[in-house]
Amino acid sequence: MEGDIASMGQFIGAGLAGIGSGAAAIGVGHVAGNFLAGALRNPSAAASQTATLFIGIAFAEALGIFSFLVALLLMFAV
Amino acid sequence: MGTTDVATETDAHGGEEGGLVFHPLDQFIVEPLFGDGPIHWYTITNVTLWMALAVLCIFGLLVLGTSRRATIPSRLQSVAELAYGFVHKMVEDVTGKEGLKYFPYIFTLFLFIVFANFLGLIPTSFATTSHIAVTAVLALAVFLTVSVLGFVLNGAKFLSLFWVSSAPLALRPILAIIELISYFVRPVSHSIRLGGNIMAGHAVMKVFAGFAAIAAVAPLSVVAITAIYGLEVLVSFIQAYVFTILTCVYLRDALHPHH
Lengths: 78, 259
What we know:
The complex is a heterodimer. Chain A is mainly α. Chain A has helices spanning about 1-40, 45, 50-75. Chain A has a single domain (about 1-75), classed as F1FO ATP Synthase. Chain B is globular. The interface of A and B includes residues 54, 55 and 62 of A.
């Protein structure tokens, strides 16, 4: 019985960690959207900033991957 | 997270009713190629096989691509030159001229990750970069190189990386702690970003492949796998690019530690 509750907690926790993926999606969309808004205002400066764009996306995305990792750890390692 | 733990846990989950036909994380189990004895550091496993294949492919591309050195390049030569020029420009743009000294290391990193990612996309192959053990070694190598380089080139002045001189004096100690923490989290996020992206992508493909066993949704699952495969090709390249460009950013911090 105790084990059932513990594994239920694992699954609920893993599901809750999925919220992090959604939050990371918002972050990545924010970065890309703002880049596009800026790039359309000043297209000549856009090409030099694509590296910054990818770095920004990578930082936002890494946190989503962390939440995925938390979910995996809850499912398989706890 | 040890791979052997995943293997045993997978068996436990596979025994439950109503699950998928196979477990989506089964593809990441490290197995010896010959026999099934314990895995030592010298055992030839599917991981080492696909890593060796990645190295062989890079070797083939660069040696065959540059051996002719034709004025009108062949396809292979074009690819080799394109890859070289792409990374060369990236290093020059991000770290500046003095960073070009370290271009060979960064080029090696980029080619290894990009080839390991692409070879991992071949059906039934093994995605070596999905293992955090593999990416952690790559990221730790970068972290140690950059830290040692920063101290060798700048001496104690390298510590000014943590002392934000543009901030108000009262804030600087607090910022120093935050900068210190963020410095030591670098190898963690650097490795998990690559490993997690590749692992997540491959796991998603396997989850949709598991749905193909249900006749009603089989066509949908085939379409979904095709679309996700296309996305994964893009992700494979972008993650290699991101890993390389972050290496360049860290290298720039080591060369010019002043804020």
